[in-house]
Each structure stands twice: as C-alpha cells, then as structure tokens.
Design goal:
alpha+beta, Type Iii Antifreeze Protein Isoform Hplc 12, 2 domains, two-stranded antiparallel sheet, 16% helix, 32% strand
C-alpha cells in the first residue's frame, strides 16, 4: 500500500469521527430535560372519631372522642368535621345506640342525645324497664331527688280496720328498695332569681316484676320515694315481697264519745297495739 492510499484512509477516518461527533452534539442539544413533578399532598380534614371501643348503652363524655385526620374526598355524609358546626362538647352526655370501634368515625346515627327519641331506651340496662311514678315535693324527698339517685318506693293507703268498733287504718308498705332514678322532670335555678320548678313525675329503672308491683302501688294509694345515701346504693333494685313491718294509725270513738287513737305495729304476721301520747 502506497502512501497516498494511507493518507486517503486516514482522512476518511478523521472525517467519520468528526461527523459522528457533530451528530451526537446535535442530538444532545435537541433533547428536552425531563421535569419530575413532586407528588401533591391531598388536602385533609379532621373528623370526630372514637378514642376507645364504645358499647351499646354506654354514656359517653368529651374524653371518649378525638379529632382524626381524614382525606377530604373520603368524608362521607354524616361525619362530624372539625370547624363545620358541631364540636366534641356537643356529644358529651350522649348514649351509644350501636357499637363503635376505636378510631371509627362518629355519626349522629350511632349516638342518642338527651331529648332525642329513643334516648330513654338506650339508657336502660338490658332486661330492665322504665316506670313513671307521680311524685310531689312532699312525696319526693322535698325535691332533692335527681337522676342516678337511688330510692326506696313506699306506698301508703287506707284500709278497713280489723277492730270491732271500726275506724280508719292507714298503712305504709315498702315495695322496692334501691331503685335507680333514670329521669325526673325537675330543674333548679342558678341563684339569679330564676324560679325553681319541682318535678311531678320520676322515672325508675325496675325489673318487670318490680314494675308490676309499683304500678299496682300507684293505683292503690300514694307513692313516696325515699332517698338513699350514696354509700348505700350497691347492687340493683330489690322487690320486697314479705316480712316488712306495716304501720297503721287508727282513730275510733269509744263508748263515752271520746276520740281514741293508737298505732298498730305488724311484723311478720304478729300485731301489737301501742297507744299514742295523750290517750287515757
């Protein structure tokens, strides 16, 4: 191979390298740099949720709820959203209508608030009944009985005296002990001149048999609610079926036309008469 051919091949190689270089530069200059967009954060709101598992019939307070972050597009109708009307304090004192799991969103259908239809049924202990009893200040511990207090139910009535000379006999008999007061239509003033309104009806939580006995007592005479101490309210209500003392006070006219009165104490079927003070 002579020098001329070698020079031609070298020039061709250099030209090929130059062309390749320029082509690569041209292609690199035409490429558009790709822009990677950062993922956008979805807007989130806070909804009311249960802090712990809530069972049916449980009375809830503000500590049972908290605000939980929730995607805005996933908010369903009925959810309680922070800053859109209702707050945690609006649900304090409500009763759970259906079980709610921890972290589950709160809806109005799951809770019953005081005054709503079905509130009393939700408050009742399973198997118990709500019985309304007419009362007054004189027959309701002077108006100091409030919901969740415990009371004894006593009925007083008039019956025929077994004495040969006749007369009136008044009997007081205990029907139920340690009954829980569910509600009472009574409000108190705040000291600013607001009138105090005493309730006329108390609602008691009783078993079915106790409810029957109290209903019969209401029809028979005057029912009195006797307030129990806070330290004497363990256990549930007890139906008093027998063995309770019955006290009756009678007044009859003797042969001289004078009024004679006595007290008859009956305990366990045995009667004993005691003269009142002032009798001769």
């Amino acid at each position: 191979m002579n020098a001329v051919r070698i020079a031609i091949l070298a020039a061709a190689a250099i030209a090929a390298i130059a062309v390749a270089f320029f082509v690569r530069q041209a292609m690199t200059g035409n490429e558009t740099p790709q822009v990677v967009e950062a993922p956008q954060e979805r807007p989130a709101v806070r909804i009311l949720a249960a802090r712990n598992d809530l069972a049916t019939g449980a009375r809830v307070g503000a500590a049972d709820f908290y605000w939980q972050a929730w995607p805005d597009e996933a908010v369903a109708p009925g959810y309680v959203v922070e800053g859109r009307g209702q707050g945690i304090e609006d649900f304090a004192g409500s009763v759970v209508r259906a079980p709610i799991s921890q972290g589950e969103p709160i809806t109005g259908r799951r809770l019953v608030q005081p005054g709503d239809a079905g509130f009393m049924a939700a408050v009742l202990t399973p198997g118990m009944r709500a019985v309304a009893v007419p009362i007054s200040a004189e027959r309701g511990a002077g108006g100091f009985i409030l919901p969740n207090d415990r009371v004894d139910v006593i009925v007083s009535f008039e019956e025929e005296s077994e004495s040969r000379r006749g007369g009136r006999s008044f009997v007081a008999r205990t029907i139920v002990e340690n009954a829980r007061v569910l509600a009472i239509d009574q409000t108190f003033g705040d000291g600013d001149g607001e009138e105090v309104v005493l309730g006329e009806t108390a609602t008691l939580e009783l078993t079915l048999d106790q409810a029957r006995a109290v209903s019969l007592a209401v029809a028979r005479g005057e029912v009195h609610l006797v307030l129990r101490s806070l330290t004497d309210n363990e256990g549930g209500p007890t139906l008093v079926s027998g063995g309770e003392p019955v006290v009756s006070q009678s007044g009859v006219d003797d042969a001289d036309g004078r009024r004679s009165s006595h007290v008859t104490l009956i305990r366990y079927g045995r009667a004993r008469q005691v003269a009142l003070a002032g009798d001769e």
